[in-house]
Amino acid sequence: MSYSIAEAARRSGLSIDTLRYYERIRLLEPPARDAAGRRAYSDGDLAWLSFLTKLRTTGMPIRRMREYASLRAQGAASAGRRKAILVEQRQAVTERIAELQSCLDVLDYKITNYERIERGMVDIAAPRERGVPA
């Protein structure tokens, strides 16, 4: 299947400008062109864009994504380094999830505390004793 840049943008959730930017910085190989010279994105291009979007969502810097894309072009010979990049990113994501879980735990505690206050069932001094501001 072949998709225009507008359709590729719609399907990928990225803007047309982002698609052109990714092509310019070599995150995305230049797509094929149709008979009129317009970009024609393939299903493979869309799958790659989906993966790039996942990497960005994990907080991977563009420079690391570019390194990964460059290694991808080298094929199987670069599999070890590509795996290492993903393992490093997975560790960063795991750490961020733990950080966010800690924040969520505090929010849950505070919400529960306020629910108790609303029901008149809590000692206001208790949160300070736990090191959580009131």
From TrEMBL:
<feature type="domain" description="HTH merR-type">
    <location>
        <begin position="1"/>
        <end position="71"/>
    </location>
</feature>
<dbReference type="InterPro" id="IPR009061">
    <property type="entry name" value="DNA-bd_dom_put_sf"/>
</dbReference>
<keyword id="KW-0238">DNA-binding</keyword>
<dbReference type="Pfam" id="PF13411">
    <property type="entry name" value="MerR_1"/>
</dbReference>
<protein>
    <submittedName>
        <fullName>DNA-binding transcriptional regulator, MerR family</fullName>
    </submittedName>
</protein>
<dbReference type="GO" id="GO:0003677">
    <property type="term" value="F:DNA binding"/>
</dbReference>
<dbReference type="InterPro" id="IPR000551">
    <property type="entry name" value="MerR-type_HTH_dom"/>
</dbReference>
<dbReference type="InterPro" id="IPR047057">
    <property type="entry name" value="MerR_fam"/>
</dbReference>
<dbReference type="GO" id="GO:0003700">
    <property type="term" value="F:DNA-binding transcription factor activity"/>
</dbReference>
